[in-house]
């Protein structure tokens, strides 16, 4: 099987790495890829958001499967064009991608499907926003209705700051979704779907804030770990039955079947499990940690989903080890990150037992050096017998990498490793 992976980031590097480990996969290509991906597979410099360009490349390479990584190509209709050309594609149609591209649309689908989520209001004016903020009270949760690469959400006790974020979204021509605040720890669960059948992956937890102790602004994600030993027993089955399957069924009923991976962002609250948001692709950096533990060959799973054959896939196999991913970000991220700085120590970090380095915002300069080319530069992923050992390996690895102005969190998976995460009582139930 020959596979083309679309996207430039760490998630795509993780996908490429897992596909290369699949005995049934004979060749992997990536477009546009990054410096790390280019070290292991051929890369192609195209506009990944252009449906015609992606389809033309897939035809030229004569691939058996196209895997679309990021949200922007999906929202642009890349999967539709590839599917129309008769090439199997793992990724939802433009219509189904609305589950992420519009939070208001996602709320409608959840309401129709009876999926438990936060109460919410859509606002298009400052007056409507102010009313909604006052109705729900602090902490205030304001979300840009459109795609914002994981940085469109503000959670704050400051009403003025919440209103200012809403105003910024309105000024950009958008609307906002204002929600009640959900207490309890958060969980990321990826569910692979072929439009009918759903198969869950291992739950993970990611870290959105830039600084330790969840301080500072939201980012696309500064690290993740899996599995979650503290999660309530039966959580995955509950999410499949109460959230993922009803959502996939509702999308099929609407005539827009969901093929790809549905990312369920969840809060385990005192009133039960609640959906914070849906994404329509593998989350970054959770994918880096989750795929590190997957033992079932990935290519077969993704092709089965693309061909509506997930019902034939056997139960997934997982390593008993824990995985921790720690992200190295550029100076000044998530504001206007500094780029173009040389990255050293990559080979040393990758030589540690159980550690691999996945590139995200990297490129090769004119002198052949790997340099930073984005906000989140790379992730150091480590396996260990338990979370503590995986953390030690990950931090040993990232400590060997040198990037001027580089920053990373020191507390990824620390609370979980110490057994300090508490799930509110009744959080194991999705019912009110």
From TrEMBL:
GO terms for biological process: 'de novo' IMP biosynthetic process; purine nucleobase biosynthetic process. This is Phosphoribosylamine--glycine ligase. Pathway: Purine metabolism; IMP biosynthesis via de novo pathway; N(1)-(5-phospho-D-ribosyl)glycinamide from 5-phospho-alpha-D-ribose 1-diphosphate: step 2/2. Its EC number is 6.3.4.13. SMART domains: GARS_A, GARS_C. Residues 107-307 form the ATP-grasp domain. It catalyses: 5-phospho-beta-D-ribosylamine + glycine + ATP = N(1)-(5-phospho-beta-D-ribosyl)glycinamide + ADP + phosphate + H(+). HAMAP family: GARS. Keywords: ATP-binding, Ligase, Nucleotide-binding, Purine biosynthesis. It comes from the Bacteria. GO terms for molecular function: ATP binding; metal ion binding; phosphoribosylamine-glycine ligase activity. It comes from Sinomonas humi. Belongs to the GARS family. It is an enzyme of class 6 (ligase).
């Amino acid at each position: 099987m020959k596979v083309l992976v679309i996207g430039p980031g760490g998630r795509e590097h993780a996908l490429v790495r897992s596909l290369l480990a699949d005995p049934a996969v004979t060749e992997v290509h990536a477009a546009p890829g990054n410096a790390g991906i280019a070290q292991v597979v051929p890369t192609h410099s195209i506009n990944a958001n252009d449906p015609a360009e992606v389809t033309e490349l897939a035809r030229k390479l004569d691939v058996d499967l196209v895997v679309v990584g990021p949200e922007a190509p999906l929202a642009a209709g890349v999967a539709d064009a590839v599917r129309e050309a008769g090439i199997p594609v793992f990724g939802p149609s433009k219509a189904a991608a609305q589950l992420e591209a519009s939070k208001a649309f996602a709320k409608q689908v959840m309401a129709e499907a009876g999926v438990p989520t936060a109460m919410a209001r859509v606002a298009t004016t400052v007056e409507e926003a102010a009313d909604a903020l006052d109705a729900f009270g602090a902490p205030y949760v304001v979300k840009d209705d459109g795609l914002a690469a994981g940085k469109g959400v503000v959670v704050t006790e400051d009403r003025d700051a919440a209103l200012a974020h809403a105003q910024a979204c309105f000024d950009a021509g958008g609307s906002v979704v204002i929600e009640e605040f959900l207490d309890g720890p958060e969980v990321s669960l990826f569910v692979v779907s072929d439009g009918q059948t759903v198969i869950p992956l291992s739950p993970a937890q990611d870290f959105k804030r830039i600084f330790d102790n969840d301080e500072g602004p939201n980012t696309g994600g500064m690290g993740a770990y899996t599995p979650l030993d503290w999660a309530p027993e039966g959580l995955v089955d509950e999410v499949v039955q109460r959230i993922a399957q009803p959502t996939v069924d509702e999308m099929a009923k609407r005539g827009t079947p969901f093929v790809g991976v549905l990312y369920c962002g969840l809060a385990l609250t005192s009133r039960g499990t609640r959906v914070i948001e849906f994404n329509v692709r593998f989350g970054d950096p959770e994918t880096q940690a989750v795929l590190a533990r997957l033992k079932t060959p990935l290519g077969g799973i993704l092709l089965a989903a693309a061909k509506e054959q997930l019902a034939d896939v056997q139960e997934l196999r997982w390593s008993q080890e824990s995985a921790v991913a720690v992200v190295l970000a550029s100076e000044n991220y998530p504001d206007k990150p500094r780029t173009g700085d040389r990255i050293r120590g990559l080979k040393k970090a990758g030589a540690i037992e159980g550690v691999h380095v996945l590139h995200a915002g990297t490129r090769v300069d004119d002198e052949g050096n790997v340099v930073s080319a984005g906000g989140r530069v790379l992730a150091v992923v480590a396996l260990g017998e338990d979370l503590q050992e995986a953390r030690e390996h990950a931090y040993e690895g990232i400590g060997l990498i040198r990037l001027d102005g580089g920053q990373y969190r020191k507390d990824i998976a620390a609370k979980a490793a110490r057994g300090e995460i508490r799930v509110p009582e009744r959080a194991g139930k999705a019912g009110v």
